Amino acid sequence: MSLVRVYPIHEKACTVQLEKPIGLDTFQAIEAIQLTISKKYKKEISESTLSYNSATFFLHSAQQLEYCCEQFQLLASSLLKNLPAVEEKSKKMIRIPVCYHADYAPDLSAISHQLQQSEAAIITLHSQRKYLVYTIGFVPGFPYMGEIDAQLQLPRKKIPIPRVAPGSVAIAGPQTGIYPIEVAGGWHIIGRTPWKLFDKTREKPCLLEAGDQVEFYQITKEEFENWNEPYCT
């Protein structure tokens, strides 16, 4: 059975998907494949996007679709045998401030009781590790990041709440994320960042992109409410 599946999703787009479990190794493999294909077929490709175990390529012409599907299949299968390294300079490490005060963490107390962990321990567990941005989705700018400490992992809420405040930092399953806009949501909210994850007036509206690495650091309620520092990227 082939570990690579290539299929059209539009008359001018196709997806390369790895038939492997989602995780860091799989993401690094599909990232290397995406970069190599994008470089070799830059005349055919207008842009590409990256996700957990797949990369989607948008083509300039529908006439190139069949050819590209065939070539991408051959190249991706070959690359899996000897994956090229991804240059570190192509990745970003971003430290994001988070206020874990109760006013901005409506689910922290309930999670503390459910997990039988102190709120301080939950904050430490959440902020002590680096996270990989696997993909951006759900709404513009929402980063799916993983993996959180096993001690923090909880299923999504059974009933989503109708409005989650922009900047809310949340957890669900093995992942953590940040709500970029006010929207309904079913993840557990444990803090809030003063940063805008999505701003259509910026040259790059989404602050984060797949492949970025993120660290969270704690700020006080006063710091949050008086925050006026620029983004650090």
Kindly list the characteristics that best describe this protein.
Gyrase A, domain 2; 13 strands; Cyclophilin; 7-stranded mixed sheet; 233 residues
Write the layout of secondary structure elements.
Layout (H helix, E strand, L loop, with lengths): L3 E7 L2 E6 L5 H17 L4 E6 L3 E6 L5 H15 L13 E7 L8 H8 L3 H9 L3 E6 L6 E4 L14 E4 L3 E5 L2 E4 L4 E3 L2 E5 L20 E7 L1 H5 L8
Parallel strand pairs: 5-13
Antiparallel strand pairs: 1-2, 2-4, 3-4, 6-7, 6-13, 7-10, 8-11, 9-10, 9-12
Protein described:
The chain has 233 residues and is of the alpha+beta class. It has 2 domains: 4-88, 2-Layer Sandwich (Gyrase A, domain 2), CATH 3.30.1360; 91-225, Cyclophilin (Beta Barrel). It has 5 helices and 13 strands. It has helices at 24-40, 65-79, 108-115, 119-127, 221-225, and strands at 4-10, 13-18, 45-50, 54-59, 93-99, 131-136, 143-146, 161-164, 168-172, 175-178, 183-185, 188-192, 213-219. Strand 1 (4-10) and strand 2 (13-18) form a beta hairpin. The protein is elongated, with a radius of gyration of 19 Å. The relative contact order is 0.16. The model has no long low-confidence stretch (mean pLDDT 93).
Distance between the termini: 41 Å
**What's the helix-strand series?**
EEHEEHEHHEEEEEEEEH
Largest sheet: 7 strands, mixed
> What is the CATH topology descriptor of the largest domain?
Cyclophilin
Q: If you average the pLDDT, what whole number results?
A: 93
CATH superfamily of the largest domain: Cyclophilin-like
- Percent of residues in beta strands? 25-35%
Q: Count the strands? A: 13
Count of the domains: 2
Strand line-up across the major sheet: 5-13-6-7-10-9-12
- Shape descriptor reads elongated
Secondary structure category: alpha+beta
Percent helix among the residues?
A: 10-25%
Q: How does CATH name the architecture of the largest domain? A: Beta Barrel
- Could you name the ranges where pLDDT drops below 50 across 5 or more consecutive residues? none
